[in-house]
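Example S7 (structure tokens).
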């Protein structure tokens, strides 16, 4: 039986091998109202473009808009999906997002548990 140190080493080795080749991403977008965040989450889930969307907030965003510094309370959506679905996700978010210029960015998930990735694969495998 493996001890904890051996198990950790095995996971770290596997994660190192995965590197940027992971097929999964997290997509981030922010909105002013929780109801808009929930609408985006449900929209993506119903279209099978995401396995999960976490809604975090309210958060404080500080940014420059039209040459002036702004500070807003927002809700952050963290969408879990496949890298190959990014274009469809971006388009879907733009379809219903209330902002004129929404933040829509993605980062690769470079490591994670096989069980979680298996669950994600199952939840979004029948995506359009």
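Recovered sequence:
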């Amino acid at each position: 039986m493996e001890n904890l140190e051996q198990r950790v080493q095995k996971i770290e080795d596997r994660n190192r091998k995965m590197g940027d080749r992971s097929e999964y991403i997290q997509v981030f977008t922010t909105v002013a109202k929780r109801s808009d965040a929930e609408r985006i989450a449900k929209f993506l889930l119903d279209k099978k473009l995401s396995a999960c969307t976490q809604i975090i907030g309210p958060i404080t965003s500080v940014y420059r808009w039209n040459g002036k510094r702004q500070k807003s309370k927002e809700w952050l959506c963290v969408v879990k999906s496949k890298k190959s679905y990014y274009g469809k996700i971006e388009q879907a978010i733009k379809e219903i997002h209330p902002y004129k210029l929404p933040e829509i960015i993605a980062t690769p998930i470079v490591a994670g548990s096989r069980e979680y990735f298996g669950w994600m694969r199952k939840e979004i495998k029948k995506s359009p």
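Notes on this example. The first helix runs from residue 4 to 18.
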